[in-house]
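**User:** You know discrete backbone vocabularies at least as well as I do. Would you mind producing a protein record, from residues through to fold? Write it directly below this note and I will take it from there.

**Assistant:**
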Amino acid sequence: MPIPPFLAAAPQSTSLQQVWKFFEDGGFFMILLAVCSLVAVAVILFKLLSLRRETVIPAALAAKVEGFEDRARQANGEALVREFEEGRSTLARLCAVANRNRGKSQAEITEAVQAAAREEIVHLHAGMIALDVVITVAPLLGLLGTASGLVVVFGGLGDSSNHTAIALGIGRALNTTIVGLAISIPAVVAQGWFQRRIDTMAARMEVLLTRLAHAFERAPHSAVVPPSIPTQS
């Protein structure tokens, strides 16, 4: 694979050429590792956006849910119920399920909310499988690239005992292992952080929804009737 003209013509591009040579020595497996790195970056960016607190448990809405029983007692919970029905966050959608089951026992409301929560948790885990695949595949591709490189190195030596050539060949063959681990390690850290964030948010929503189910069971039926939401034609 020839060095691109922009690298060869650029002044003081020795370091860039060395980087290019590093990846070039990895051969075909470097392309597969590059795909893995792109997938990992895309998934990490997606999870950073989808797991924002504003899209899962907005602080303002959480505070309103905690005080919903007082609002229902004062018969001024209609605005909050409208916010539930708009469903702009995970918490709002689950609260809307609880609202649609108002008047039932707390156990029935909790069961309905838990059924909807399972689907929402699946959505929160979207992309985690792809990240897990990258974590598993990237090091294996690196090892496979190294193994194939060593086969080429030792197969081309024949009866030669040039130790310098052997050392250089082994060093180049290890390039894919280095890249595979460099992709996998940040992905493992990101996966652990995302999983911890999902678990924390799920626990927080469980507490809030339990309180809301208790409030809907005790609140008068008329106090929490949702106003009609206009639909767009």
